Amino acid sequence: MSFDKKSVVYQIYPKSYKDTTGNGIGDLQGIKEKLPYLSELGIDVIWLNPFYPSPQRDNGYDISDYTAVNPLFGTMADFEDLVTTAKSYGIELMLDMVLNHCSTEHEWFKKALAGDAYYQDFFILRDKPTDWLSKFGGNAWAPFGDTGKYYLHLFDVTQADLNWRNPHVREELFKVVNFWRDKGVKHFRFDVVNLIGKDEVLVDCPVNDGKPAYTDRPITHDYLRMLNEATFGQDSDSMTVGEMSSTTIDNCVNYSNPERHELSMVFNFHHLKVDYDNGQKWTLKAYDFDSLKNLFHTWGEAMSDNDGWNALFWNNHDQPRALNRFVDVKNFRNEGATMLAASIHLSRGTPYVYMGEEIGMLDPDFTSMDDYVDIESINAYRELRDSGKTDEEAFAIIKAKSRDNSRTPMQWDDSTYAGFSTAKPWLALGASHKDINVASEMSGKIFPFYQKLIALRKNYPIIAEGDYKAAYQESHQIYAFERQLDEQKLLVFNNFSAEKVELDLPEVYTNGQVLVSNYTTPKITQKLTLTPYQTLAILIENA
Ligand code: TEU
């Protein structure tokens, strides 16, 4: 048996979902309170971003204790209660495992720093740094106390990379996963897991900030097999997803092909870099539709042909809202949000919904750097200023690209703090909460459409299981693909433009039925016109 391909995952950033204690920070009890809402949406699994003890330099991705609950979010009893209550709604949890690095406040690092050789071998220490850059700015190595050595930190200086070559490290990390399995958790998301395998000899790499020297190293596949065998592989229906930073298709096929016993599926980010100028995040550029479409096609087909499996997503806690990036939201918010949803929910892979996406939440309209909390954004602003940009130029870039765009509190209603909290939230609310909130959107256009898509995946095996083939590849406006399962075929059109698009339907589809449309259902004829941001999916039973 393997994981359930009909499942849809909903991602919650615990800090921003629902505060029940009145301290402006979301908590586990708050998530429990919203289970009826999630059940109504129809999702199967909740992925929770880290809620473990942490100095919160990187909002919980800097873990100081892997097997406890940060009092900010509640207690272990709250967590156990959440698991049990979720189960009564048919919902299971997916936990975030940050096993590439730990906080420098973790006792392993503290003992290492105090001179304990056993724990020093938990980290990646060298006499001389390489030229690799940290993903949060600056060199990726920092002095290890006054030993004259340096430790590797691919992320913040307080996130020390763990030495997976050391079997004791692997053993400790496998224990962590099993600790949570013992609490009834079967599903896991592994943070930047394609970076865990470092070579024995680390060398300078002037290309791409050093990424090729530590990304997708062959030994990573071995570590994943060990992890699988020692932990989640023992639960036949466990669902695991690896976050793959700057990865390749070949590696992702291998990470997710069931015969290799590594992971169930992968996140890759290539489609979310199509608005990067020259591959650089901290730039402003309109997105390139052809690149987006080609990436979806190349990945969709390669994974389908080679039995790999993609996690499908537009949003997460590291990305500005997709609606602001890919849609003319002023004029077509409803149409764009539903089209984006259909373009992944009808595709091959497991769809992920990031909190607020199902009500069409937008980036906040922050007006000053004081509104930002994210360490990456703050560092980037400083670097942009240092590189000669004016305040205004630097701010405009942060505003478009900051990770805080998606981390603002969930908008439940139009009250002062959007029904998120009774106190001022830890991160400012989006100004849009007066109009865009759960209370009003549940009877709007977007939420019901998500409900429909999630239900369709359960009722139509072709959506959950069918093959994927590119269609209308030459179009500069439409992203179209064809799914096939036995005699059935499903053709899905997604108009990414704010213009009407005319197209010719293949003969065989003229007898098809409309399975999904985000506008009133059109009559199927050989000549079709798609309206702006229209999604149209046509099913034929006997191809
Ligand atoms: O992110 C990994 C990662 O490389 C990015 O998504 C990164 O945040 C982005 O490229 C910056 O531009 C994961 C987590 O999702 C992220 O929140 C953590 O900060 C990071 O790992 C470190 O644990």
Automatic annotation (TrEMBL):
Pfam families: Alpha-amylase, SusG_C. Belongs to the glycosyl hydrolase 13 family. GO terms for molecular function: alpha,alpha-phosphotrehalase activity; alpha-amylase activity. The lineage of its organism: Bacteria, Bacillati, Bacillota, Bacilli, Lactobacillales. InterPro entries: GH, GH13_cat_dom, Glyco_hydro_b, O16G_dom_2, SusG-like_C, Trehalose_TreC. PANTHER family: ALPHA-AMYLASE FAMILY MEMBER, TREHALOSE-6-PHOSPHATE HYDROLASE. GO terms for biological process: trehalose catabolic process. One of its GO terms (cellular component) is cytoplasm. The keyword Hydrolase applies. Keywords: Glycosidase, Hydrolase. Residues 11-407 form the Glycosyl hydrolase family 13 catalytic domain. The keyword Hydrolase applies. This is Alpha,alpha-phosphotrehalase. Its EC number is 3.2.1.93.
